[in-house]
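Q: Could you fold this chain for me?
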Amino acid sequence: MSDEVSMKNLEDVDLVALLKLVSQSLSNEGVTQKTVDFWRWKHFDNPFGQSVGLAACKSNELVAVRPLMRWHFLCDSGSYSALRAVDTATAPEWRGRGLFRKLTDKCVQNAHKDGVSFIFNSPNSSSLPGYVKMGWRHVAQLKVFLCVSSPARFVFSFMKYKFFKRNRVAEKWCRVSGGKVQSLSLFRDSRDLLKLASSFEEKRRAQGYRTPRTPEYLYWRYVDQPNADYGVHVSRDANGSISAISILRLEVRSGLLGAVLLEVFSQKSDVESVAVEIRRVKRELKVDYFVSYFSPLSVEASASKKCGFFRFPFKYINFAFRPLGENVSYDIDPLNPESWDISYGELEVF
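A: Sure. Below is the predicted structure, expressed as structure tokens.
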């Protein structure tokens, strides 16, 4: 079989054939199930713009794809247009023939011509070495934080799963919170919710590169995602006005029901105010554990530590960065892990 293939733009690829190929190579269940709706949400409806990338074909048969999502970062020195490398897939019979590198190298060239500042992604341990060979820099292993709600309940749930194979089923928000956490889709038209998020971002001191939490981004990320039912915890002050919110997602692992803490917004941006909101969430959600990730120097990370979160030694997310152009310089060092002001919300499902 000849290794000669033709390349075409990602937008010219048949979506049904693309999803069939991607489903063979990548996770195809849960919040990342490769449905048509999920792909359109991720690559077409993204508020930063439609994804770009390339595909390889052999005699009109799709054999490899290399998509890149458009992204945007803000920092004190300005704004950066970026691309996020995701969803690479190669047909089993074509693996090991250099298609991954050929497509990626061409995409890097195109991105540089288009004025993109850099490419980033969170590759797994198997694909990371390949990216490093193509000029990526491994910035860090971002340590996930864990908080056990009740040690006794945690052990009991795990032992039931371990010895009796009794797994937890996915729960609804109303059953684990007594109505204190609701599906975020119920707040789709809440102006107060959006005002609070915008106000928090204005007061909050950024710690490097940060995704702008615009109303458009928040809707797309947490309301429009077709495979996940994100929940929102809302705190109110004595006058009934919203004072803080948290965005979460439920998960089940090894018989344990957990809540992923993705974002926290508060009228006051000091550590104690954010910690008060996290304590309320912990108190009102009946789960076995919480997990989160916030930038080490962020107010959310400091507040999480005050609330009992600690680094989970066996859980981390690789973060990698690809500069574009020779001898390019950045105002904030992108190879310093503390330069990336990101949360779990930017790391999961992509």
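A (continued): The mean pLDDT is 90.
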